[in-house]
Design goal:
The chain is built from seven helices and no strands. The chain has 173 residues and is an all-alpha fold. Helix 2 (27-34) packs across helix 3 (38-77).
């Protein structure tokens, strides 16, 4: 017995029908436009077009995933603010920190070349803190634990009349 063939797949305007359905066209207007039955068009959309669209999406997904960071970087370079998710993720923070460190290194080079010693000292301190922050974020450096130190105080209360009269007594402990 022969496998039944989709009548829409045999239609001379198959590409236009598929494009109309993929663009969100509904069954009744699309079937009327191409002179096909609504039920045949529905079967075609479910049995023929949906698997093709799913396969195309699988092929295009890696391409989209590889382009997303590039497109986002272009948008940020053009002045678009980073999203909260980008700011809060570790990789986003490390990327922003790396860019900041690059700018600070450039500023340090300029200050050194122009003999701006106080500016160089300030930039060097910022660089040091930035490198320490990057190391902490990547787990290469941890702040040393501060051991609690016991502290005590001694209050000595002297009667006021002894202070005024000059009658101090000393004791050795």
């Amino acid at each position: 017995m022969a496998t039944p063939t989709c009548s829409i797949c045999q239609h001379p305007e198959l590409a236009a029908i598929d494009a109309a359905l993929a663009a969100g066209g509904t069954l009744i207007p699309t079937s009327a436009s191409f002179g096909v039955s609504k039920s045949a068009l529905g079967r075609h959309r479910t049995n023929c077009l949906a698997p093709k669209m799913a396969a195309a999406a699988k092929v295009l997904q890696p391409i989209r995933e590889s382009r997303e960071p590039v497109e986002r970087a272009k948008a940020i370079a053009m002045g678009d603010a980073p999203s909260p998710q980008e700011v809060l993720t570790l990789s986003g923070l490390l990327d922003r920190l790396a860019r900041s460190l690059d700018r600070l290194e450039g500023a340090a080079d300029t200050a050194a070349n122009d003999n701006l010693h106080s500016a160089l000292a300030a930039v060097s301190g910022q660089l040091h803190r930035g490198i320490a922050d990057a190391a902490r974020m990547q787990g290469f450096y941890a702040e040393p634990e501060v051991q609690p130190q016991s502290r005590f105080s001694i209050n000595i209360v002297l009667p006021a009349n002894d202070l005024q009269s000059g009658g101090f007594q000393t004791s050795d402990f």
